[in-house]
Design goal:
By secondary structure, this protein is mostly helical. It is built from 16 helices and two strands. The protein has a domain of 66 residues. It has a two-stranded antiparallel sheet. Strand 1 and strand 2 form a beta hairpin. Keywords: Repeat.
Length: 270
């Protein structure tokens, strides 16, 4: 029964945590018994079971409970099969979604060598706009996961494609993550390539795209600032913030802190 398999998946993470805490007593139980179930349920015929399996996988990755060898030899190959060009549409959409979510939890080498080539292919998927939409919405996270060199060499050309996509929702998603993409690139790429690209979005024929671009204007401009002098930094939640100066920290006045996100203080940042 699918409901039984779904309930089972929900119990996998707490069992895995227990086994990790009791590892001297159960050194191989998770890898021998539980990990194969998680991998198998990623391809289950029932949608709810697959969803529960995906959620369990993300929790296990977040808790660092899956060995690197299992990620590379068991998890990634399954996701690559599910996201292949000839894969079923529903499976492909789910696979690209899970690839984007898990990229930030894996080491850079694994993402760049195993997942990045497939992500670039999916950015150009002409069959399913849902796949391209997921890629566009998560583009900044993928850039952050692979770093500047891979971003400029492989991802920026794909970003240009998505920014000129015929579906306006794609262009809007690109405008929303523009700051995160810009932050990962060098000042020269930011100046020579991303600035003209941003102007095209802010002049888009669709007002929803223009509105998203204007909302990203302040954060995008802030990426041109010198972090050491401007005191700008990226929080863990991905927002750009301003670090208070030492003068403000040492001041005894009851002024509000300068540590505010640029989403709400772009004028001051500019």
């Amino acid at each position: 029964e699918p409901t039984v398999r779904t309930e089972l998946m929900e119990q996998i993470p707490p069992i895995a945590i227990f086994l990790q805490e009791s590892r001297p007593k159960f050194p191989t139980a998770f890898f021998e018994y539980l990990m194969p179930i998680v991998v198998r349920y990623l391809t289950d015929v029932n949608n709810q079971v697959r969803k529960a399996g995906q959620e369990a996988l993300l929790i296990l990755l977040e808790q660092d409970l899956i060995a690197q060898s299992d990620i590379e030899n068991k998890v990634c190959p399954i996701l690559l099969d599910l996201s292949a060009p000839d894969s079923d549409d529903e499976y492909k959409v789910e696979a690209v979604n899970i690839i984007c979510k898990m990229a930030s939890m894996l080491n850079r080498t694994t993402v760049e060598h195993m997942l990045l080539p497939r992500f670039c292919e999916l950015c150009s998927d002409g069959k399913l706009f849902q796949v391209r939409k997921i890629c566009a919405a998560n583009f900044g996270d993928i850039c952050n996961a692979v770093g500047q060199e891979a971003t400029e060499r492989l991802l920026i050309p794909k970003f240009f494609e998505l920014c000129s996509d015929s579906v306006w929702g794609m262009r809007k998603a690109c405008a929303e993550c523009f700051m995160a993409v810009s932050y990962t690139t060098s000042p020269e790429v930011r100046r020579s390539k991303l600035s003209p690209l941003f102007i095209s979005l802010i002049s888009d024929t669709c007002r929803w795209v223009r509105q998203a671009a204007f909302q990203s204007l302040g954060p995008f401009i802030s990426t041109f600032a010198n972090p050491s002098s401007a005191g700008l930094y990226i929080r863990e939640d991905g927002t750009l913030s301003i670090r208070p100066s030492m003068q403000d920290v040492n001041s005894n006045s009851c002024q509000p802190s300068n540590n505010v996100t640029l989403m709400t203080s772009s004028t001051n940042a500019m």
